[in-house]
Write a structure and sequence with these properties.
This protein is an all-alpha fold and 299 residues long. It has a single domain, classed as MetI-like fold, CATH 1.10.3720. Helix content is 69%, strand content 0%. The protein contains 13 helices and no strands.
Length: 299
């Protein structure tokens, strides 16, 4: 027997409204956080540059051309060339790949290790939490750059060692933030129910506590990418990070920031602008993401 539906039947039955689509959520995010949307656009442009670097350039980033050394920006070399005749635009585009590789890997590793340690510290508490927090205090007593310099001095230069050097300082900073959220989750009834069911500590930590502290973890990881890019550029500028001939923004500054500041200022200006935009974009996007995910900041 056919039934006739009338308008308003769904509301009368108390059906839940449809969830907004991803595009609607994206539009709402951009409307509420225009600066964060601008930062996200900078991040997206960097990712496109890193992925499609070969398609966006026509020069070899490591090939020397001594006939065109320190050429000013023109139609052939859009941003000019450096002291070895290498196209600056090409090296900046390929440098985005180096910056994102070091930034994302170190931020993800540091934030993930800090997530697990912070949740475990909040869950077990007691002596374990006391010792863990004192160790974190010792590590956090050193500034990020100083600790990264110490690690690089021990392990040596190179992209892999730079990632390790940047990862270590991020661990306690993420662990502290995650631990504060995990302490509240530990007191919830479903954690007590999981203990009563006889679940192992590993399952409770990974299956029940970690998913409930993902918001601060995502925010910390996003903010750490910008800091990691800045630290990598600082280490490369000092000669302790990525080495030649790898395209890296810090190396480009090191090679031309002082010696050619007056005769060829474009050698230092454009890599500096790239570093500033990258760090600024990630910071804006991270702040907007924090406001978006934190229910206490929503009106």
């Amino acid at each position: 027997m056919a039934t006739i539906s009338h308008p308003g039947d769904e509301a009368a039955l108390g059906e839940a409204p449809l969830r907004p689509s991803r595009w609607q959520l994206l539009g709402r995010f951009c409307a509420q956080n225009p600066l964060g949307a601008g930062g996200g656009l900078v991040v997206l442009v960097m990712m496109v540059m890193a992925i499609f670097a070969e398609e966006m350039t026509r020069f070899d980033p490591t090939a020397n051309n001594f006939g065109d050394m320190l050429t000013a920006p023109n139609l052939e070399y859009w941003l000019g060339t450096d002291q070895f005749g290498r196209d600056l635009y090409t090296r900046i585009v390929f440098g985005a790949r180096t910056a994102l590789l070091v930034g994302f890997v170190s931020a993800f590793a540091g934030a993930t290790i800090g997530l697990i340690l912070g949740v475990a510290s909040a869950y077990f508490g007691g002596l374990f939490d006391l010792i863990f927090q004192r160790v974190m205090d010792v590590v956090m007593a050193f500034p990020l750059v100083i600790l990264a310099l110490a690690v690089v001095s021990i392990f040596g230069t190179g992209a892999q060692n730079v990632i390790v050097a940047i990862t270590i300082p991020f661990i306690p900073r993420c662990a502290r933030v995650v631990r504060s959220s995990a302490l509240a989750v530990r007191e919830t009834p479903f954690i007590d129910a999981a203990r009563a069911c006889g679940f192992s500590h590993t399952r409770i930590v990974l299956r029940h506590m970690v998913p409930n502290v993902m918001a601060p973890y995502i925010v910390m990881m996003t903010a750490a990418v910008g800091q990691a890019i800045l630290i990598e550029a600082s280490l490369s500028f000092l000669g302790l990070g990525v080495q030649e001939p790898t395209p890296a923004w810090g190396l480009m500054l090191r090679g031309g920031a002082q010696e050619y500041a007056e005769s060829a200022p474009w050698v230092a200006i454009y890599p500096g602008i790239a570093i500033s935009l990258a760090v600024f974009g990630f910071n804006l996007f991270g702040d907007a993401l924090r406001d978006w995910l934190d229910p206490k900041l929503k009106v």
